[in-house]
Design brief:
Low-confidence stretches: none
Largest sheet: 7 strands, mixed
Number of strands: 15
Mean pLDDT: 94
Length: 328
């Protein structure tokens, strides 16, 4: 097998494409021949030693991938050799083969292409857990999605529309706003024009008739958090999804009191571990929605697996719409 190996987590430049022995699966594991792997923001942080999970060195990055089961370990009964699966295991994806815990593998229905499958779990599981489970989104409510042209943002638009919500999508360019409208957003905000320091709050107020959004989906953090939260509706729910802009914001808690609003943490990874049955049901729901054509990952582009450094550079430029996927 071949893999991108991180022997020293000082950044992307330290990764090397190496030939390694193909491993045998242990108890509870499967060997997957990887067809496609997507690039997520944590994949950048982990090779910079900035992610909360710090795998033992050396390791192969790549948190999310899809492929074919080539061998099963002892005790694995729900997966068979030759079966197509998707997996989000945190590491191992930027390679030709990897070992994965069988319990983390999502069996794929026939007709689910590997490129879409590799870009599916993280964005849709996060967004469905956020909007439906944590925010209890109801039909007719208004959702403001920040960072709406990124992976989780594009998923949030589709899932919010499927739930019957009105969606306001905020993104950083006219091109990205146009994509959001194609995905079903009812209104868009270009926040390079309506910046957090100037008219972002005014534009949110205008688009909601002064009421404010019922739910704010925030994977961005930084300077966007406080003006967005100040704009929230009475009994609104502010979903803390991530901090793609870098800084972790501080919010004055009196704002929560004044609006009767909730600040709601979204940690899908721990939800999946702590509530595996609920997560499995949710993943089945999402797979069914995909097969019915209700949701579909936005793929910015696909690149050969050997072009991983180029993919990292593209992601770092913040020009990506949806997901980047690497293929073998």
């Amino acid at each position: 097998m071949q893999a991108w190996l991180c022997e020293n987590p000082v950044g992307v430049d330290a990764l090397s494409w190496k030939e390694l022995p193909t491993p045998e699966p242990g108890a509870g594991e499967v060997l997957i021949e990887i067809q496609a792997a997507s690039l997520n923001f944590p994949d950048l942080l982990i090779v910079q030693n900035k992610y909360q999970m710090k795998p033992p060195l050396p390791f192969v990055p790549g948190s999310e991938y899809a492929g074919v089961v080539r061998a099963v370990g002892e005790g694995v009964t729900h997966l068979q050799v030759g079966q197509n699966v998707a997996c989000l295991s945190g590491t191992g994806g930027f390679s030709t083969h990897t070992l994965a815990p069988a319990g983390l593998c999502m069996p794929l229905p026939p007709g689910f292409p590997p490129v879409d499958a590799a870009a599916f779990i993280m964005i849709y599981a996060t967004s469905q857990h956020a909007l439906v489970d944590r925010a209890q989104l109801k039909a007719g409510e208004t959702v403001l999605v920040l960072g709406a042209a990124g992976g989780v943002g594009t998923a949030a638009i589709q899932l919010a529309k499927a739930a019957g919500a009105r969606v306001i999508a905020a993104a950083s360019s006219d091109d990205k706003c146009a994509l959001c409208r194609q995905l079903g957003a009812d209104e868009t905000i270009n926040y390079s024009v309506h910046t957090p320091q100037t008219t972002l709050r005014d534009e949110i107020k205008r688009l909601t008739g002064g009421k404010g959004p019922d739910v704010i989906y925030d994977p961005v953090g930084g300077d966007f958090a406080e003006p967005a939260f100040r704009s929230i509706a009475w009994r609104g729910r502010y979903l803390v999804v991530g901090f793609a802009s870098g800084p972790i914001p501080s919010l004055p808690l009196n704002l929560s009191l004044l609006k009767g609003a909730s600040i709601v943490g979204v940690f899908w990874g721990d939800f999946a571990k702590r509530e595996p049955k609920a997560n499995a049901q949710m993943m089945q729901t999402l797979a069914t929605m995909y097969m019915k054509g209700q949701i579909k990952p936005v793929i910015d582009q696909t690149l050969p697996m050997k072009d991983l450094p180029k993919a990292y550079a593209i992601m770092g430029s913040r020009s990506v719409k949806g997901k980047l996927v690497l293929v073998n």
